[in-house]
Amino acid sequence: MKLPFTSQNQVQEIINAKIEDLGPAQLSSSQPIVFRGLVKDWPLVKAASESAQSAAKYLKSWANENPVQAFEAPANVGGRFFYNENLNGFNFTPKNSTFKAVIDEIIQLSGSAQASSTYLGSTSINHILPGFRQHNDVLPLQKAPLVSIWAGNRSRIAAHYDIPDNLACNAVGRRRFTLFPPDQLENLYVGPLDYTPAGQPASLVDFHQPDFNKFPKFKQAIKHCLIIELNPGDSLFIPSMWWHHVEGLTDFNVLVNYWWRQVPDFMGTPLDALNHAILAIRELPESQRQVWRDMFEHYVFSPADNKHIPESKKGVLNPLNETTARQLRAQLLNKLNR
């Protein structure tokens, strides 16, 4: 699975990375960072260095029987989990299973050139692999809100963004990430916001066969891309809102990732604000939209100090805390439920 384009851009790499290399500056960077060998001492990575079967056996030794949802795509889609041709459905089928059964299926498919694609996406490790993180973890991120495992054979996941920051730790097999900065939104031809293959809006461009007649601006996006391949033990920091296209390049691939936000948990999600703005602002006359653009600039993007208002009366113009966030959320719910 070779991309028909390359990248001339460089990404920061830390060779022979240690846990102490994950400082506050790295974990809040606005640019991607590759940490070569960061998790090479994980028992899972060491098992994978012996064989795929050894890695599978190690993973299953921690697995419980809790249900998981996996996805299966026929061989003719080349591992690309995506919409169907008419964009009114998907080219894959969800199936309920257990983690052990999914891993067994992936191993059984190994080596077959015409194998279907099996993919287990973003599944909580604490839910299905209790005890695994006692021996396979990134200590500075032990308290990350969500730690997930991804497993499959050869697969392609369309370019999408995530709101949280992300440390992706490649444990088994090889993965390729093709990254684009957030300002390439227009050049990536993003599909529907509310009808998506995996929860997040995704680029409609097939990166292996880009149709430049249909998606001409993608040529501009390519000029800004970063292409990073991870071997077992390597990790990649992906900042919030960076677009990333992800490929599993081998017959058995396992990745563990950590998601966290740089704001307290009580803060709302920006996607909710975007959806509310579509509901409340997008259809206004242009002159009124300009007024609201200025309002957002004044109150949100370049907030004024509002020294003319007594501190006790600033309300939501003060820095948010858990109490005021709860009050604001209640007000919004009350208005939305009219």
UniProtKB/TrEMBL annotation:
JmjC domain sequence ranges: 82-275
Pfam families according to UniProt: Cupin_8
InterPro entries according to UniProt: Cupin_8, JmjC_dom
Transmembrane parts of this sequence: none
PROSITE patterns, per database record: JMJC
Signal peptide start-end: none
Highest taxon in the source lineage: Bacteria
Protein name stated in the entry: Pass1-related protein
